[in-house]
Amino acid sequence: MKVYLVTDLEGVSGVSGFDVRDSNLPQDVELRRQWSQLWIAEVNAAVSGAVAAGATQILVIDNHGPGDTLPAERLASPARLLHGGRRASWLAGLDEDFDAVLIIGQHAMAGAEGGHLRHTYSRRRLERVSLGTEEIGEIGLIVGIAGEVGVPVVFLSGDLAATKEISNLVEGVETAAVKRGVSKTCCVSLAPEQSRDLICRGVERALKRRDQILPRRLDASREIRLRYNSACAWRALARRLRGGAGLGWRPPRELCARGETLRQAWDRAIGLKG
Questions:
Q1: Residue 103 to residues 96, 107, 156, 236, 255: CA-CA distances in angstroms?
Q2: How many domains, in total, are found in the chain?
Q3: CA 218/CA 262 separation, integer angstroms
Q4: pLDDT tens digit string along 62-98?
Q5: Host domain of residue 202
Q6: Residues 174 and 239 in one domain
Q7: Predicted confidence (pLDDT) per residue in 148-190, tens digit
Q8: Quick check: is 219 in a domain?
Q9: Beta bridge partners of 134
Q10: Which of 68, 141, 223, 237 has its CA 20 to 30 A from that of 79?
Q11: Are residues 115 and 228 located together in one domain of the fold?
């Protein structure tokens, strides 16, 4: 069995704030260390569950920030890690050869009620993302892009709002809510050991019944619309992506993207090759 594991930081139990990678203050350096250890432990719990279910190939995708944050030296075998920036596609390497997708440490979309650290792709720049008239987050994008190549998303761990978000998209998906948002920047987390146990057992259960969870295809004919937090951020992106295929600009703050597939439209929208 071949598994594609997408992982982010903000939905990990014990992680209480946004990344402090830009700070060199001693307390922030220590916080980064603590959060990275909590994060890799949840990823490794998912790897253990996947192996128990029969997975022999596991590709882990660092989907946080620039994609080089997960501590590779602690990744459990037999998983491999795709990390680093300037990828050809947002979900690089995901194709029809995979049997299932797992999502670990995921946050809810921008504006989600009760979502801890909620945002979509960029908390600093984006106010919301829509597919046609419906708002969509990173969870919906992962589900839709995986669905285009016929691969089901069978498991998600993250905060309670994230588990609700995917349950509205994928019938029968397994989830593990490892924390609950009190506000955007405050949460109640489970003990790390309990979170890891939920993830390990949930992943094993999900992969054993993966044939019962169908891929979800979203309507790729609809345009993706990104609404920026400020006209300044929108103008800066417009200058950088001017002339890009499939892109349109709606002043004062919207970017529209189309493609032959949802993956292509999203890659174009965020400035990848598409």
A1: 17, 10, 5, 32, 27
A2: 2
A3: 8
A4: 999 888 889 999 999 999 999 988 788 999 999 999 9
A5: 2-212
A6: no
A7: 999 999 999 999 999 999 999 999 999 999 999 999 999 999 9
A8: no
A9: 131
A10: 141
A11: no
